[in-house]
Amino acid sequence: MQFIDPHIHMTSRTTDDYQAMAAAGIVAVIEPSFWLGQPRTEVGSFKDYYSSLVGWERFRASQFGIKHYCTIGLNSKEANNETLAEQVIELLPLFASKEGVVGIGEIGYDDQTKAEDKYFRIQLELAKELGLPVQVHTPHRDKKSGTQTSMDVCEEHGLDPSKVIIDHNNEETVQDVLDRGFWAAFTIYPKTKMGNERMVEVVRRFGDERIIVDSSADWGVSDPLAVPKTANLMIQKGIAEKSVRLTCYQNALDAYGQSGQMNETDWLNDEGHDQRELFSGNSVLRGQEPKITKSSGIIE
Ligand SMILES: [Zn+2]
User: Ligand 1 centroid to 298 CA: how many Å?
Assistant: First the structure.
């Protein structure tokens, strides 16, 4: 079975992760722009980060046989530095129009401050203007009201719920999100919050329509194999294969494919990869033996 992980921060992950993900059947990932753990102090740091998401990281993924897409946005935490936020907002249209950018994200609320609200709204307008899907990060505190507010604000700005993916859902928020026509994504955390046992029950209870599974793996305790592991658990627990395919592959493709930047043919017609390839003069090899799956790359 093939999988898509539509929320994973590969910049913080290793080549071992890429290898394990490809071996487990992950064919494509979406990397949202996010907070790096340490607050940035200059607009140039954002610029270089966005450049790496559309450039180097996309190349690095390709060298392990995985298609890499991203969403571009100012995260809610750093929206609270208003002087910097103003400058970051100016950068966004340039990067949001690059190849492989499938949405504006991850944006939304953290502490639900006035500044977060202001920059969330500005970015919703940008998404509307560019016709891109929106990837919404919902707050981990006051989850229920934060999720409702996020949807209210999207509606207020005239966004079509079918182009908005609400992430970090739980059993308390999912029904409301589905009833209002939004996509409901679930982040599978290894031990806390939403585990994969709970996810199986969510699919059993709420169905497979507009429900999306992701790992949100980053620099913290997280699991880059959360999507394939949850899929396997679903199969073991008697969930129909059709539902596993929808929640761990097809729904993410349908939601973010609306950007026009992500097509199944990207990986189905893939010619393989050649680790001797370079990006700005650099390869991923560090002197190691290259793996070559491209037929034209076979050395006789
Ligand atoms: Zn994230």
Answer: 38
Cα(127) to ligand 1 centroid in Å equals 18
DSSP tag of 232: H
Given a cut of 70, whether residue 216 has pLDDT beyond it is yes
In three-state secondary structure terms, 212 is strand
- The token duo for 143 is 């989850």
- Report how far ligand 1's centroid is from the alpha carbon of 31 (Å): 8
How many whole angstroms separate alpha carbon 161 and alpha carbon 181?
5
Distance 7 CA to ligand 1 centre (A): 6
pLDDT digits (tens, 9 = 90+) for 123-154: 999 999 999 999 999 998 899 999 999 999 99
- Considering only 55-59, 151-155, 241-245, 281-285, which range has the smallest mean pLDDT? 281-285
Long-range contacts from 180-185, C-beta under 8 angstroms, 24+ separation? 180/151, 180/155, 182/151, 182/154, 182/210, 183/210, 183/211, 183/212, 183/251, 183/255, 184/210, 184/211, 184/212, 185/6, 185/7, 185/211, 185/212, 185/213, 185/214
pLDDT of residue 297: 45
Token digits for 247?
């929640």
Sequence-distant (≥ 6) Cβ neighbours of residue 114 within 8 angstroms: none
60-108 pLDDT tens trace: 999 999 999 999 999 999 999 999 999 999 999 999 999 999 999 999 9
pLDDT, tens digit (0-9, with 9 covering 90-100), for 110-122? 999 999 999 999 9
Q: How far is the CA of 287 from the centre of ligand 1 (A)?
A: 32
CA of 9 to the centre of ligand 1 (A): 7
pTM of the predicted model, to two decimals? 0.95
Q: How far is the CA of 53 from the centre of ligand 1 (A)?
A: 14
Separation of CA 17 and ligand 1 centre (Å): 17
Could you tell me if 219 and 12 are in contact, meaning their C-beta atoms sit under 8 angstroms apart?
yes
CA of 72 to the centre of ligand 1 (A): 12
